[in-house]
Specification:
By secondary structure, this protein is of the alpha+beta class. The chain has one domain. Helix content is 25%, strand content 24%. A hairpin with a 4-residue loop joins strand 6 and strand 7. Helix 1 runs antiparallel to helix 2.
Length: 384
């Protein structure tokens, strides 16, 4: 029988060293992180994996979200994995650990965090999505399609609970504030924000009939913390499924379309988000294209149980082939937009410094100044 207490599922990740370059995580890092978690009595269960060069810590416990003990444990696991990365001279060792000492919570310290607590249902299927070489806005389209698009999720039409709708909490990454929007009534308002994923990202989603969350995503933007480019944010996301929530197949379906996301090489290029198995989640071509992996867990009595590799399925072969073709097309643009990010999104990279070096060489053009009254008259003539 499921425990009546609220169970917390925590997914905390960080890039603590790439093997080789930014392509993967060395097995020794995963082993060390597993040892640290395995020696703790704070957690019920854990699983350590990787998505590209990011170490992923998945934990269940009864301490609630943002629990200092859990975050300190995760920080210790990532720190010790980073020391192994230093020993092995891995690339960017400790890259996402932006401060020297733990200060109570890993949020704002570099690692990405997705956590939620809930009363475990008689059957509790959960999906953990982990992406590499992209940013938190990468979840906007898939999560919208899971919870608000009846063309993707027929449960929104035929499931009496889902028919009532969901509340999306959207985070403004620029101004640090949130807004709640309810579907289907405020769908168009929601899309107005989600269509600008560089600034507005989904924080969490809950059904209108309960306070328990159905999905949660990391919203960390490393550049906002560090004030400079320190690598892509490589977001994570947790989605609960079934029984009034999207079915497992409905939650996976959005990734059959490899939509375009920012990131890829040097965090400065647009590319398709390719769904792969864990074994296929080692981006190498031009450090990409961006990848997403998904592990499914059937939680029982607070335990994760064995993971299932959800994208290890031939049904996603077409999505992978499409992503390869779209990636090839975009790559042919080289340093030109739309493959390279627009300048306003490159402000935290070395691009700003390079522009400053050349600033003195720009010369003002001599512009012919037309008489204002004449200009107004000519403008009126054009309108006529």
């Amino acid at each position: 029988m499921a425990d009546a207490r609220k169970l917390t599922l925590s997914l905390i990740k960080a890039d603590v060293g790439g093997w080789v370059g930014h392509s993967s995580s060395h097995p020794a890092l995963l082993r060390r992180a597993s040892e640290v978690l395995g020696n703790s009595n704070l957690i019920e269960d854990y699983y350590v994996t990787q998505a590209g060069d990011d170490v992923q810590l998945i934990m269940t416990h009864y301490n609630g979200t943002d629990a200092e003990g859990i975050h300190k444990l995760a920080w210790q696991a990532l720190e010790e994995a980073a020391s192994v990365a230093h020993e092995l001279h891995l690339y960017g060792a400790g890259q996402d650990l932006l401060v020297d000492a733990f200060s109570g919570n890993v949020r704002g310290m570099g690692p990405g965090v997705a956590e939620m607590e809930f009363v475990e249902r008689p059957s509790e299927p959960v999906l953990c999505f982990m992406a590499d070489k992209t940013a938190p806005g990468a979840w906007n389209m898939p999560l919208f399609r899971m919870f608000a698009d009846p063309m993707t999720t027929p449960g929104l039409v035929i499931d009496s609970k889902m028919h009532k709708g969901f509340i999306f909490t959207v985070h403004d990454a620029l101004e640090g504030k949130t807004i709640d929007l309810t579907t289907p009534l405020e769908t168009y308002d929601l899309l107005m924000f989600l269509g600008a994923p560089g600034r507005f990202v989904i924080d969490h989603i809950r059904p209108v009939w309960t306070d328990e969350w159905a999905a949660v995503a990391s919203t960390t933007k490393l550049t906002m913390i560090a004030g400079r480019y320190v690598g892509k944010d490589d977001p994570v996301c947790i989605v609960r499924c079934q029984s009034g929530l999207p079915a497992v197949g409905e939650a996976l379906e959005p990734f059959a379309f490899p939509h375009i996301v920012p990131g890829w090489m040097r965090g400065s290029h647009m590319g398709p988000l390719m769904p792969t198995s864990v074994a296929g989640g080692h981006p190498s071509r031009f450090d990409g294209p961006p990848r997403v992996i998904c592990l499914g867990f059937q939680i029982a009595n607070g335990k994760l149980g064995e993971p299932r590799d959800m994208f290890d399925d031939v049904a996603f072969d077409l999505a992978r082939e499409t992503a390869s073709k779209v990636g090839e097309y975009l790559r042919r643009h080289g340093p030109f937009e739309p493959h390279r990010l627009p300048l306003d999104e490159l402000e935290y990279t070395t691009m700003a410094g390079l522009q400053k070096e050349l600033e003195s060489r720009w010369k003002a053009e001599k512009v012919h100044k037309m008489d204002k009254s004449k200009a107004r008259a000519e403008g009126a003539m054009e309108l006529d």
